[in-house]
Amino acid sequence: MAETSGDREAAGLARMTELLGRSADAGLTAEETAELSTILADRMQGLDATLGVRYVAFRPEIVVELIVTRDHVQPWGITNGGIYATLGESAGSFAGFIAAGGKANVMGVTNSTNFLRPSMPGDVIRSTAHAVHTGRTSQLWRIDHVNAATGKLLATTELRTVVAAR
User: Fold this and answer.
1) How far is the C-alpha of 28 from the C-alpha of 58, rounded, in Å?
2) Mind listing the domains of the chain with CATH numbers?
3) Which of 93, 118, 138, 149 is the most buried (most CB within 10 A)?
């Protein structure tokens, strides 16, 4: 019997769930991290896909990257601050989902982003989510956005999330 696209979709979702669970428990090998990154890239939709966000690490912190293009900048050529807020929301919410064991919906309720240095097309923004508090019903994350080439801090996001049962 031939495998259908629905079968492949279900298998991909099952493998993603397995890898996310393993990430929450013990972390992933380099091969598993690459596999999960590929699965996410294939399944990505919405704003992350539109912007070109890449998930590159899952433990001990979530790390996402974005190559700044002309589509990401203000009229005078520097990265729009909304990009940093979005990267913070994506990294923090995903980290929160893993911290909740992949068994709850995690949604941002407050996003406060401070801008420190500009970035421009060609720069790679690397955003890393650090847990401040991971409670049963709420979480607090600090996301540092750095220039991947220089290591200089570009912005910080503080993201408060709510953990809600599915």
Assistant:
1) 8
2) 47-165 (3.10.129.10)
3) 93
Give the pTM.
Answer: 0.85
Nearest CA among 74, 72, 28 for reference residue 47: 72
CB within 8 A of 52, min separation 6: which ones?
A: 66, 67, 69
Q: Is 109 exposed, middle or buried (0-12, 13-18, 19+ CB in 10 A)?
A: exposed
pLDDT in tens, 91-138: 999 899 888 887 888 999 999 999 999 999 999 999 999 999 999 999
Rg for the chain, CA atoms, rounded: 16
Give the tokens for residue 29. Answer: 């090998």
Encoded tokens for 91: 């990294």
